[in-house]
Amino acid sequence: MKSVYWEPSLQESLLLRSKDIALSIVCVSSTAVATFMVLPQENVDGRPVPALFRDRPTLYHVFLISALCAFLGSLGSLLIQHKPRVEIFCRVIGVAFMLSALAIVLYATALCSVIPLPSSM
User: Which residues cross the membrane (predicted)?
Assistant: First the structure.
């Protein structure tokens, strides 16, 4: 007796996974930016910068740009479905910028652990 269950083809399953990845990047990038806006901040050159990026405000701005590009690339990938080449390009842009934003946060965390923040007494 044959199974009655429907199994998607390889191409359909990859398409579903890529949409899940794009949706995950949209959620993670928007949550990350919102979280960094809520963290304790210090004024550096008249601009608020989270304490993690206190010594390197330029790194924080690069993180914001990377997270924004990851968000826009993944959102474009979700919205553009009738042009597969553009969709793949947007998805690759989203993944690349998300990885760069993650690398920036890990780099800032490593610098923060090597050079600890001064404790207030």
Answer: 21-39, 59-80, 92-117
